[in-house]
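Hi team,

As requested, here is the filled-out complex form for the pyridoxal-5'-phosphate run. I kept the field names the same as last time so the parser does not choke. Let me know if anything looks off before we queue the next batch.

— J.
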Amino acid sequence: MQKEISKEVIDKNYNQILEDIKRYSPYPEKVKILFVSKYYDIEEHRKIIEMGYNYFGENRAQVYRDKLKEFSGEKYKNIVWDFIGRLQKNKIKYIINNVNLIHSIDSYELLEDINKKAIENGRTVNGLIQINVSKEESKTGIYVEDFEKDSNKYFLMDNVKIIGFMTMAPLGASEEEISKYFSKMLDLKRKYAEKYDYLTELSMGMSGDYIEALKNGATIIRIGSKLISK
Ligand SMILES: *Cc1c(COP(=O)(O)O)cnc(C)c1O
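And here is what came back:
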């Protein structure tokens, strides 16, 4: 079944988020809205592209591959694709050749595997380390302490450049808790930005918590459901 894709609704929500960025972010000019397009099939997604949106995040490698195949060529050359989901080793090949930013590097082993595939394909890719800041068991990501224990190794890859961090707040957490986790992420980003001047990105905040993320210095907010809510 096709969802109703209304330009009016999406534009209105998108503009609201732009306003929120200006209002809540300490540096609004640095903030990007990643349009999480995982809820749409090819035909629905095509309509969204025709509305003028061009920066998308997908969370499943096969879908990513299929959409890229569909939206290729001159007409779609301005579209930028990020990957935000759990990535299995054997599916890195589906995304490696076109991806702008991999948000979800949730283990050192995965980073090594991505690096290997990038080298094989003669590519250099940008990535974010996914941090499990709340230590919620159902979430993936590296614990802050584990990252800090041995952080240098993440920055030694020849073909993957780590330009920041990504996190997800725990489900059902209070605003205060969410803020605490996001501010911990900002501290982490600041600390490593001192060491690596190209480390500029902090991907956090989704439809339900992006305002907290903005207040705490997010540079990429990943928004899906809010864009179609009436
Ligand atoms: C689905 C998803 C989002 C967007 O979630 P919404 O609540 O629909 O905005 C953001 N980040 C990741 C990793 C996701 O899988």
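Two things worth flagging: The longest helix spans residues 175-195. The domain at 7-228 is CATH 3.20.20.10 (TIM Barrel).

Thanks,
J.
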